[in-house]
Amino acid sequence: MKSPSQVPARACARPTHRLLWVLATALLAVSVSLTAQQSRPDTVQLNDNVPMTYTVKSGDTLWGISEIYLREPWRWTELWDSNPQIDNPHLIYPGDVLELRWEDGRPVLGFAQRGPVKLSPKVRSTSLSSAIPPIPRDEIDPFLRANRVVDAVIFDRSAYIIAGDAKRLISGVGDRVYGRGPVDATDRTYSILRRGELIVDPITQEVLGLAASEIGTAELLAAAATVFTDADVKELEVTSMNEEVRIADRLLPQMEGIVDAFYQPKAPDFQIENGFMVAVDGGVTQIGALDIVTLNLGTREGVVVGDVMAIYQAGEVVLDPVTEEMVTLPDVRSGLVMVFSVYDKASYGLVLKASRPLAVGDKVKNP
Predict the structure, then answer these.
(1) What's the number of CA atoms in the CB half-sphere (13 Å) around residue 164?
(2) Where are the beta strands (DSSP E) in 265-355?
(3) Paired residues of 216 in beta bridges
(4) Closest CA to 243 of 310, 196, 278
(5) 161 — phi, psi (to 5°)?
(6) Which one of 58, 63, 68, 226 has the largest count of C-beta atoms within 10 Å of its C-beta?
(7) CB 239 within 8 A of CB 254
């Protein structure tokens, strides 16, 4: 009988080889499975080194947390778990602990622990304003209250202020003003608007609308049965103001739009063609994150509130040193913008991310 030291080395190695082969086969199978899952177009892609748990802090947004986890944060609704035990799965609060797990090969972010907000079968009395929103509203709400896009022809044909009370050139809340032009006595409340810049498509040169500043509101001081001609002088009272009301400011019936409590970012449902940032709030030359821009796309193109678009800077034109031809480099992806207000031919968007200084004239495309 041979001693252990006399057993051939390859005889001892065979079990080791077999074990290594089994492990390699298993690892290969796992790798193939993970690769297949990652290549599935309907599976969201995680960033590298994402945390397995995250504690929600005051000031967080769902978008911000989604940016931590997702390469495409506009697909955040596909990551968040829908828990039927929670009143609204999209409402999370500071102190909540979120946990990343996998279900059927898909990453899911759900609650590991609720924060100080107590959940019970009773009606919750906690204000929903304490929940963190998908998108910060601080920049959007003041802009919406003071800006809108108006058809240029309608604006030019609208009623206007011809005088203030006691010959005042500037009026404020509580003052009476006088207007002329088309006014319907059944419309009691009017927006006071001031002309801004025309919004022009950079490719077709079509006038897409007029950017108007909403100066305030005025109440018509006449009986509802009153019949006016355009030439009649109408008496109104200024009921609110963002700026002083001036002679020649326009009067249009107040829009009764419903502002969503939350903006739900998503990819557009259509293929974007010839989309551009055509203006920026404040007239700045360099556009960055949280700036508000005007896009040459509206409802006629299929844009809806919440659409997220990628921002591209046009590729530079360089000289080919061999052929001495001028060559245009590919467009460079430089940021993201989310639409928050849509009109017929134009829309307003909030820049969510900017990897470099942006400018009017940069393109927008599908993310």
Answers:
(1) 16
(2) 275-280, 292-295, 308-313, 317-319, 326-328, 332-342, 347-354
(3) 192, 241
(4) 196
(5) -85, 125
(6) 63
(7) no
Q: Which among 231, 236, 192 is positioned nearest to 214, based on CA atoms? A: 192
Give the integer Cα–Cα distance in Å for 217 and 190. 6
Q: Which two three-digit tokens encode residue 169?
A: 């050139």
Tens of pLDDT along 20-46? 444 444 443 334 333 434 434 567 889
Cα 24 from chain centroid?
46
Quick: pLDDT tens for 217-254. Answer: 999 998 877 888 999 999 999 999 999 999 999 999 98
Closest of 307, 353, 266 to residue 78, by C-alpha: 266
Are the C-beta atoms of residues 364 and 272 closer than 8 Å to each other?
yes
In the block, residue with structure tokens 């929940």:
131
- What's phi and psi for 230, nearest 5 deg? -60, -30
Q: What is the CA radius of gyration of the chain?
A: 30
